[in-house]
Amino acid sequence: MTVTLDLSKLSDAVTASVSDWDDTCKLADAKVTCMVGSLAAGQVTTVYPVSLASRTGATPGDAGSVTVTIAGAEDDANTGDNTTSFPVTVVPSGPDLVAERVPQRRLRLRPDQGHRQAEDQVSSGHRRHDRGRRRDLLHRVEPDEQHRPHRHHRRPGRLR
Question: How far apart are the C-alpha atoms of 69 and 75, rounded to whole Å?
Answer without folding.
Answer: 15
